[in-house]
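in:
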């Protein structure tokens, strides 16, 4: 089982979205189980519901309305957060948008 680490481990009940730089998570399969972790500490499992790959500049509000971090529900706020995680991040970067459901 793969582990997805978060810098700011905040999750909504049920369905969440996270945006990741590049293609590392693009090969997740619908229905695949992953472990979510907080700075390397496993927290809970999740099931993949959708994978989208697109340029950051093409993200629509609908794509991130369930962003796990409620601060990042607009493209501008998400961009600022991505710059914290990836200081060289640009709006032309390819990102993978992962939709998942928390398993209780």
């Amino acid at each position: 089982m793969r582990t997805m680490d978060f810098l700011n481990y905040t999750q909504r009940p049920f369905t969440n979205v996270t945006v990741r730089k590049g293609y590392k998570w693009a090969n997740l399969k619908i229905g695949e189980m992953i472990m979510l972790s907080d700075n390397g500490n496993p927290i809970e499992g999740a099931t993949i519901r959708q994978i989208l790959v697109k340029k950051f500049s093409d993200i629509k509000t609908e794509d991130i309305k369930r962003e796990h971090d409620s601060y990042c529900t607009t493209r501008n706020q998400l961009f600022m957060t991505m710059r914290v995680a990836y200081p060289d991040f640009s709006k032309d970067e390819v990102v993978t948008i992962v939709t998942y459901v928390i398993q209780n």
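note: The chain has a mean pLDDT of 95.
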